[in-house]
Design brief:
Strand order of the largest sheet: 1-4
Order of helices and strands: HHEEEEHHHHHHHHHHHHHHHHHHH
Strand content: under 5%
Number of helices: 21
Distance between the termini: 60 Å
Largest sheet: 2 strands, antiparallel
Structural class: mainly alpha
Low-confidence stretches: 4-10
Radius of gyration: 23 Å
Length: 462
């Protein structure tokens, strides 16, 4: 009986299983929801929905085979994004293989002397920069052990070290000023200039990062003063090690590798604003930078390409999820039910103030991330729905990007379907419940900051 009860225990479904389930539901909806479409017009480089033009068309229900065909079609239609993720992951893997990241952190630690307490804000700021520039996500897992060593060396606990990495990257991911995986994809779908509106996003990012740093430092100081206050006290007692850093030499080759990545980020930003570069150009630049970093770092030709493949393997989960998520829209588009959904939602929201509509969009994106824990995947799934609704309700498209961006980013550190969060916690040996006891305060704080930011943006006609 006991074994039977244990078998009935709920297990969180695999993310891909959830997405397959949503695709199947989407296919069933093509039989239930009446097919319909709006007329559209091109204006100022945007395809706009014409209000009042909705009409029903012949029903086009999907077949069983369409459920599976939607995935390769989704991968093809999102190909630029999929391969960008692969190549950025590969380039990142090469630099990681040279030891540049770990040695660089250790070098900074050794230079701070009596000001080692600054490692918390400094490290979190660095991770946040990677978060808003290259969309640091899955890669955070490999830095968790380093964060823990830093924290224990300073007299804190493993939870402090883990939060330095997770919340640092999440703060930048939420800011998203130059993040091609979230803001870039969402703005591309919304047909507005990539990375436009970065000024307000930067201001909000500073508030978000400050809230995260303050939360971590207050907890860290409390733990250092009295280790019994640690939320992972049993773990610290079990480890019972006074970890210290071995300060290995930070070589010029490793510094050159990091400089190449930083230079590539800057070059891509310049190219986007100056030459309207897309994901293809950015992918090529990261591939070139990664290969050069490997050769300069002493990996050799074979070693460089081995590291490239390893980096791609590490990012596989996030890259392939784009195709699965895009498959949902493929089914709905082929069944011609998207416009019917848009028509129904816009009709319900037509008399609702724009300030409330934006919050509704934010909440929708927040909870949808339980099923689609991928920024680019969620953008490709939801923006085709949100943008027409915004057009019909006379809401600036930039606002729909903000609602998506903040809803997606905050929930990344909350839901157990996030492979990044659960992977990082597993490496740190921290339970999900222990994480929630620590993280709920900053999550609530971030929610209030983002709602206030969206309200201000709406008043400013952002």
């Amino acid at each position: 009986m006991k074994r039977w009860i244990q078998q009935l225990k709920f297990r969180t479904p695999h993310t891909y299983a959830l997405l397959m389930g949503i695709i199947t539901i989407a296919c069933l909806l093509t039989y239930i929801i009446p097919a319909g479409e709006y007329d559209r017009e091109e204006k100022n480089g945007q395809t706009l929905v014409i209000s009042g033009s909705y009409k029903e068309v012949a029903q086009q229900g999907g077949s069983l085979f369409d459920i599976f065909r939607a995935i390769p079609e989704g991968l093809i239609s999102g190909g630029e994004i999929v391969f960008y993720i692969f190549l950025v992951g590969g380039a990142f893997g090469i630099v990681h293989k040279t030891g540049a990241f770990e040695t660089g952190v250790k070098y900074v630690m050794s230079q701070l002397g009596n000001f080692k307490v600054l490692m918390i804000p400094l490290t979190m700021t660095i991770f946040s920069i990677l978060g808003f520039s290259i969309g640091l996500a899955e890669e955070t897992i490999i830095f968790v052990p380093i964060g823990i060593i830093i924290a224990r060396t300073l007299g804190y606990d493993a939870l402090t070290g883990t939060s330095i990495v997770i919340l640092g990257a999440a703060s930048g991911f939420m800011g998203g000023m130059l993040n091609p995986f979230t803001v870039g994809v969402a703005q591309t779908v919304a047909e507005i200039p990539m990375f436009s509106g970065w000024g307000l996003r930067t201001i909000i990012y500073l508030f978000v990062l400050t809230a995260a740093i303050t939360t971590v430092m207050l907890y860290a100081f409390k733990v250092k003063k009295d280790m019994s206050k640690s939320l992972v006290l049993e773990l610290e007692q079990a480890e019972n090690t006074n970890q210290t850093y071995e300060y290995s030499r930070f070589t010029k080759r490793q510094a050159a590798g990091l400089a190449l990545i930083v230079g590539t980020i800057a070059l891509n930003v310049f190219g986007i604003f100056k030459f309207s570069w897309s994901f293809n150009e950015m992918s090529a630049n990261f591939l070139l930078a990664g290969l050069l970093a490997g050769l300069i770092g002493g990996l050799g030709i074979n070693g460089t390409f081995d590291a490239l493949i390893e980096g791609m393997k590490d990012i596989l989960f996030g890259a392939m999820i784009v195709g699965f998520a895009k498959g949902i829209i493929v089914i709905l588009e082929n069944g011609k039910v998207i416009d019917t959904i848009v028509h129904g939602m816009s009709s319900v929201l037509s008399d609702v103030p724009a300030s409330i509509v934006i919050i509704v969009m934010f909440v929708f994106q927040f909870f949808l991330n339980f099923f689609i824990p991928s920024g680019s995947g969620q953008a490709l799934t939801t923006m085709p729905l949100m943008v027409p609704i915004a057009d019909l309700l006379d809401i600036n498209r930039q606002m729909t990007v903000l609602a998506f961006q903040y809803g997606d980013a905050i929930s990344n550190i909350l839901f157990p379907t996030s492979a990044i969060l659960m992977g990082a916690l597993a490496v740190a040996k921290i339970s999900y419940v222990q994480w929630l006891k620590f993280a709920w305060k900053v999550i609530v704080l971030w929610v209030f900051i983002c709602i206030a930011a969206m309200s201000i943006a709406l008043m400013l006609n952002y």
